């Protein structure tokens, strides 16, 4: 019984048979980004491009970390009377640093974007090739619209992660680690305040990240259900109109897309709350550090340039950690997409060609020729 006949029977009050179950059961949802590791074989094909992207990413991060040092020297020495002749040199160095940062950032963007496009292209080809190798019985139970959704929407989500989110996450991690190390070198006392605030920032990131992961998977599943229902309706449009079920089908589809909308809103709300908490905690810690450092400058225990250097490093560390909250949500969505695609690739066809098809064919011909 297809979807049109089920709707007609439901409208008439006739008992209907339970809907067909998918051939592959849904696995228990994972709480980590482990499904993204399934993309490593695709990434390994272009390892040199990935290594080049990682190199320019590190160069961009290191160049960013050099800026506060140049600012400190400019404030402490460039504005002094005896160092006025060096002010032009300091600004020239800053221009050079900015140029290196711009070139390395552009190279990183190009490499990771093309890498994401290439990996997603291979993934689409692999998933589609595996789909058409499955037994016909699988397609009797599976929803065509859901399969199309996995080939399009899920792979697009993975492209966004591989082509942007993972690169941004790595850059923020390098910035956070480098800025934290430079903060300790600049002022161990002020660094103690910052390090004490890290657990307060990381714990909400971990806790809310799991909630975002679950809600992202639910949003993707409900959208796939709506797409599958629409595909069945369009494929059986003659039957739909023969039963005059247009209003009922429209209402059912409206309910499906509304469920997808509510699931997407819940996912977005969780990500928004996570972002607000992380940004507030990180920014508040910078304000506290700035107040403590100002007291040290007034007491003569720290120069204004060193305080400026420390604050810039603290801002880099806080912004890197804050952006990780947004990237975490995107990576969680990509993990859900990768998990759904790997479910297809894990299916084993019921009917498979023999390992040595040519030998088997020749053997059968020889048997037929025997008297």
What does this structure look like?
With 371 residues, the chain is an all-alpha fold. The chain has one domain: ABC transporter type 1, transmembrane domain (ABC transporter transmembrane region fold, Up-down Bundle), CATH 1.20.1560.10. Helices cover 82% and strands 0% of the residues. The protein contains 11 helices and no strands. Helix 3 (47-78) runs antiparallel to helix 4 and helix 7 packs antiparallel against helix 9 (246-298). The two termini are 50 Å apart. The model is unreliable at 1-5 and 14-31 (pLDDT under 50).
List keywords for this structure.
ABC transporter transmembrane region fold; about 375 residues; 11 helices
In short:
This protein is mainly α and 371 residues long. The chain has helices spanning 3-12, 40-44, 47-78, 87-131, 136-141, 144-186, 188-235, 237-242, 246-298, 304-345, 357-369.
Shape: elongated
Would you identify the CATH architecture? Answer: Up-down Bundle
Total count of domains: 1
Largest sheet: none
What structural class do helix, strand and pairing data support? mainly alpha
Strand content: under 5%
Low-confidence stretches: 1-5, 14-31
How far apart are the termini? 50 Å
Query: Whole-number radius of gyration?
Result: 29 Å
Supply the CATH superfamily name: ABC transporter type 1, transmembrane domain
Record field, number of beta strands:
0
Helix content: over 70%
